[in-house]
Amino acid sequence: MTGRDGGGTPAEPVTEVADLRVVVDRIEGRSVCGLAPGDFFTVTRSSRLAIAPGRHFCLYALAAVLPLLPAKQRTLDPGDWLAADTEVACPDPEERLVMRIETTGVSRIRTEELT
Question: Organism's domain of life (predicted)?
Answer without folding.
Answer: Bacteria
